[in-house]
């Protein structure tokens, strides 16, 4: 068993809080609704005030158990803006006014943007909520997978919401520019999507997510995915603009340069001092939210926020296994030159019903191609091969 509870200092505790378990659009790749798991459908549509109160008490108990530097609450869904505004305000009040000792609390929200209006922006302004928009590229690419429940385009509504957030930031109403979360599309051109975000939408901070595919998803296309990532990477390197932050690129480049592994929540669960878990609208705590589509025992509820403490979560079989998987490599990865950089890839992408998480990622080829291209860029920039090899080997 991985003994995490003996470490009393936690740098970052992140709660993926499912404040709405329904959505106003129907993305065909959605791991919440369209990957065969019914937890969201069987959960309350919105989180109750009682469960918010119990979550606050849970966090306060956590701060007594551990020295937590930062508490981050990510409002998630479904679509979180389906929550009534007055309930959202009450929730933020409860979360931000509670006594967490020396711990700092920050609020973030992931939305498709179609429901944003000035009243929502006023709430984001009041409670210092960082907002990120989900969009997959220009209209003809975004609308391949991100349509509303009646099969209509969501692109215009999403961009309208993004523009409102950008204008609010320029007016000084928001503390940070809105970011973008994009699911990589192997049938699209990565360069076109990158340029759309930077040149057309004027967004300089975004992340590209590898799809939540596993071995039961027969349409995974690792070769085309590798091409997509390399096309986007080439554009980012060509821009050579330190103001443009693409997390997937930045974190792997840093590792190739020998920096201490920063990691990405949901991708590298062994990151020291950083823990994340999911709290549903029903108040039940589970591990990494993307693992729900496995319908595996690892995503079984650990307990209700009213009944357990953070130490119970950390020492639970589900969380212990989650961390253990992140610290180990699938048998197929042994001896791979990229094993210390890739770390086996996203846990979700390693899953098969028969062998659970002991398969190499379905996007193994994609990541090997991407890391090779990233290394080639570094060499072309004059980085010594010995430095890259040392980083790969550490």
Automatic annotation (TrEMBL):
Residues 9-260 form the Radical SAM core domain. This is XyeB family radical SAM/SPASM peptide maturase. Keywords: 4Fe-4S, Iron, Iron-sulfur, Metal-binding, S-adenosyl-L-methionine. InterPro entries: Aldolase_TIM (IPR013785), MoaA_NifB_PqqE_Fe-S-bd_CS (IPR000385), rSAM (IPR007197), rSAM_sf (IPR058240), rSAM_SPASM_XyeB (IPR030989), Sulphatase_maturase_rSAM (IPR023867). PROSITE patterns: MOAA_NIFB_PQQE (PS01305), RADICAL_SAM (PS51918). Coiled coil: none annotated. One of its GO terms (molecular function) is metal ion binding. Its cofactor is [4Fe-4S] cluster.
